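Subject line: Sequence and fold of a protein, written as structure tokens
Body of memo: The sequence and its backbone structure tokens, given next.
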Amino acid sequence: MSLKARKVAIIGTGLVGSSTAFSLITQGVCEEILMIDLNKEKALGEVMDLNHCIEYLNRNTKVRVGSYEECEDVDIVVITAGAPPKPGQTRLDTLDLSVKIAESIVNPIMNSGFKGHFIIISNPVDIIAYHVYKISGLPKNNIIGTGTSVDSARLKNFIGELLNVDPRSVQAYSMGEHGDSQMVPWSHVYVGGKPFYKVIEDNKDRVGDVNLDKLVLDTAKAGWEVYNRKGTTYYAIATSTVAIIKAILNDENKIIPVSTLLDGEYGEKNVFSGVPAVLNATGVKEVVEIDMNEEELTKFKASNKIIREYINRVGK
């Protein structure tokens, strides 16, 4: 009996790419990881360092330097390579260069015969994910942007700190753009099954007046708070990415907020946006449509309008 090794290729061996690989091997998610970078010596250095971990882990994951031509039988390609924003820029300001980088990666990978899943981390992630969908020719469910997965984790962390509860006991989603225009449907935020609105109403003496707009702003700016202190973020996004990879490789049917193509959901079409989605071996099995109120839906659509404006700029 032969078993197919589950393979993940990581494009870009900077801090995000290497942290993603480290998270994959420490969690024992797949059997083989290909590290691909234009700087082959950097890729080799990361491979060597990662292989030196194996002695003290619970399984031997094969990690090696790879190439685009070897991606034919890879299950998942993670694209981390992109143009990092400079001080004072937003993620959207990096669009033009990130588009060129994405094209230089996706075209040779598709030429290899690749038929797996792309997971896009590169910013601006919603627009780059849409562009990868267009140029790859793969089905929409095979293209997944990390989207608001990390924003939702940050939001839950803030709520957990506010209420002094484990953030994993909070159910909450940040939705829309992975950027400044993201929004939170507060009517669907729960803590231990109790509506967040009711939680703060019943605990005024403990939490005081909660500024929901500030919580959204803090969530959107959290990455920049990290960036301003250490130069970039990588642990959180790497772990979010590995959660997506596990949901696919293990056929988990797990709901994670990711950037995916909307095709009528929420009344939106032809845009990649951060929404809760069911992930399994097919990629995005389906989008979860939560019943937002009118104010929340207006904010969500406003965020999608910004994403769509930038999508329309690509190629012009």
In short: The mean pLDDT is 95. Residues 294-313 form the longest helix (20 residues).
